[in-house]
Amino acid sequence: MTRRPTFDRERDLCSQGYRLIAGIDEVGRGAIAGPVAAAAVILPLDGDIPWLSLVRDSKQLSPRQRERIFDLVQQSPIPIAVGIGMVPHTVIDEIGIVRATQKAMEKAVAQLTRAPDSLLIDALPLPDIALPQWSIVRGDQLSLSIACASILAKVSRDRYMRELDSLYPGYGLASHKGYPTRKHLLGLQRLGPSSIHRRSFAPVRRLITGGS
Questions:
Q1: Rounded CA gap, 41 and 211, in Å?
Q2: In this structure, is residue 186 part of a structural domain?
Q3: What share of the chain is helix, strand, coil (3-state, %, to 5)?
Q4: pLDDT tens per residue across span 180-201
């Protein structure tokens, strides 16, 4: 059964005096091409939010459902603030995927038009941000703020990968979004790595070095 995220964590923080609570999530860590992306969103904890009942962990939604919610959020005056951050493959290769993911999250927080007073993060802590923060395992299934951020991050990155597909044809980026599917790996073997492939990731590195 699909689990519905709630505002329980946010309301608990609100009872402790926090008011601008940003939910943060990322997407693209397991891809072998393209950027890692993150989103941060601050939602009001009261009032009627018509589209909020649609929000789930982005992985539990179809592409059409995610796109619909993304557009509803962007067109709605209800979110207090939304921020999107992306870190390119070149930086991922330079500093590693964990630190690059943190940088994408930090960028998303920096893009918020209202400064948060606390953070709810899906699993990965952000030690370089001096704010009270809580890392929640499977947070995108538990917290509405994190779940909303997961949708915004996913749709933003998916749209970008579809743009890259027209620039780097033959790999199927529009369908698999840079993840190592069979179709992607076959394209990689046939065409070799493109300039947006992550050289430090094993399937790409093996082709470059000729290793097993």
A1: 42
A2: no
A3: 45, 15, 35
A4: 999 999 999 999 999 999 999 9
Domain-embedded: residue 113: yes
Give the CATH number of the domain where residue 66 resides.
3.30.420.10
Query: pLDDT tens, 107-129?
Result: 999 999 999 999 999 989 999 99
Q: Which helix (H) or strand (E) holds 118?
A: strand 118-122
Sign of the torsion angle spanned by Cα atoms 201, 202, 203, 205: positive
Which residues make beta-bridge pairs with 118?
Answer: 21
Asked if the structure places residue 185 within a domain, the reply is no
Task: Give the 3-state secondary structure of residue 24.
Answer: strand
Q: How many domains is the chain built from?
A: 1
What are the structure tokens assigned to 138, written together? 């499977």
Note whether residue 172 is domain-resident: no
Q: Which two tokens stand for residue 76?
A: 């709605």
Closest CA to 31 of 145, 201, 174, 212: 201
